[in-house]
Amino acid sequence: MTFKTKACTFVICFVMFFSIQVVAEIDHIHFGSKNNPLQGVTITWRANQSFCNFKWGYSTNSEMEQVPPIEGRIEFGDKNFYLFDYTFPDLEPSRTIHFAIQEYNGTYECSQYTGQWTAVYSFQTAPGAKSNKFTFIAGGDSRSERCDITMPGWQSVSEALRNTNADFFIFSGDLIIQGGDKAKCNLWFDSGKNFLSQKLTYYSAGNHERYGDPTLSNYLNQFVLPSNGNFTKLYYSFEYGNAAFIFLTTEIVPTTDFGKEFMKKQTEWLTEQLIKYRAPGSNNYKEWVILCFHKPFFTVDKHEGEMTSFTPSVTPKEDTSGDYSTIWWKDLFDEYGVDVILNGHTHLYMRSVPILLKGTGPNGQDITFDEKGIPSKPVKEVQYGKEKNEGRLEIVTGGFGVKLLTEDKLTYRDQWYVARDKNGNPLYIMAFHYCTFNIDGKKMEMIVKKTEDNSIIDQLTIMHK
Ligand SMILES: [Fe+2]
């Protein structure tokens, strides 16, 4: 072996050793829940050993409870990494919990390896499921472009979110450019780690989650979400305080037999949920019903009509939403007086006027849609609210770090369904932003802020009767 070869071998070994040290860290720490923000709260992390120890408590000293070793599951078809979940028992409201993680290789390996405990992390619990006063923040679309090797947008937004005081967060999808891209997945977790390791988030998958991963297996493996009693976590609900939150998916498209059956089940389940939370006299009646799913029914630019078009050729084949137009969730939303619908997909902030499709057309007819999915203009204006003669607040919030739309490229045709600001200008704004919702009994206040300078770009209060 020549000196040059030896030197190369040394460098390669050094790099390999160093790499092993790097990947041995505990990373990708993030919070989910199997239920509401106090019950079923689960922390998930990644390590490259197959077992981990976990300890936590309501203080930082030796009172911490140490749980039995946890066995990991393989991440992303890659035996070099394992994912771990720990589901907390029901958490006490308005407390700070502290936790730390340590990896080791269990008893099945030839040699024992025990890592260092991580630094102690902390997490603030929510004010209580019986509280009718709480705050949540919504947004979506953090993905990079295909060739980006950093995520400065998502990094800056996640830092802004980290400094908020919301009790939980809602992420309306398109986390990364391609759900099957492992490097991009790592980049997303690394760029958002300070936020993700401290805050609880509920997710709805976007179309980019299924690119390179058509069954959304990586997304479903990474995130702990509530169960809906069916076979999937792609749609689910939870109750918190005087509100019900319903998450749907627009990403199993009903263009195959499987997709049609999935959509049928999802719609039946949605109907059951809305009856449960909104039928008069229901024991589970909730003051507020809030929905989240990725693709909007009402939006501007190239995604306009994607959910309402009768002609699949209007949209790219992979995004064809087919039967959404005829299955017509929107009728259900009006029927049961959904309050808020949170979407992403279009890279801006946009607020709708109150949307009530039933009986607001000419001569009391319902609103109709042309074959491109463009809705006819109602002759009757309504207020936001849950009553039969009131309409839905539909928010497109796609500004968690993605490359934003720009005014010169925006296709906007002065649609009636875009709300106006006090100067009469359409309420769409291309900026990184987040939407804060403060619920206090029968009052809901929405404040939308730019992350750049925390300036308010939209504000609205809805009072229920
Ligand atoms: Fe999208």
Structure commentary:
- The protein is an alpha+beta fold.
- It folds into two domains: 26-124, Immunoglobulin-like; 133-463, Metallo-dependent phosphatases (Purple Acid Phosphatase, chain A, domain 2), CATH 3.60.21.10.
- It contains nine helices and 21 strands.
- A seven-stranded mixed beta sheet has the order 12-13-14-15-17-16-18, with helices on one face.
- The longest helix has 22 residues, at 257-278.
- It is globular, with a radius of gyration of 23 Å.
- The chain starts with a helix and ends with a strand.
- The model is unreliable at 7-24 and 313-320 (pLDDT under 50).
- The structure holds fe (ii) ion.
- Fe (ii) ion binds next to helix 5.
CATH A-level architecture of the largest domain: 4-Layer Sandwich
Mean pLDDT: 88
Which small compounds were modeled alongside the protein?
Answer: fe (ii) ion
Structural class label? alpha+beta
Beta-strand residue percentage: 25-35%
Classify the helix fraction into a percent range: 10-25%
Large-scale geometry: globular
**What is the radius of gyration computed over CA atoms, rounded to a whole number of angstroms?**
23 Å
Features:
465 residues; seven-stranded mixed β-sheet; Immunoglobulin-like; single chain; binds fe (ii) ion; 2 domains; Purple Acid Phosphatase, chain A, domain 2; 21 strands; alpha+beta; 19% helix
How are the secondary structure elements laid out?
Elements lengths: L2 H21 L3 E7 L7 E7 L3 E7 L7 E7 L1 E3 L2 E10 L8 E9 L16 E4 L8 E7 L12 H11 L5 E4 L10 H10 L1 H4 L4 E3 L3 H4 L6 H6 L13 E5 L2 E5 L9 H22 L9 E5 L31 H4 L1 H7 L4 E4 L5 E3 L41 E5 L30 E2 L3 E8 L2 E8 L5 E8 L2
Bound molecules: fe (ii) ion.
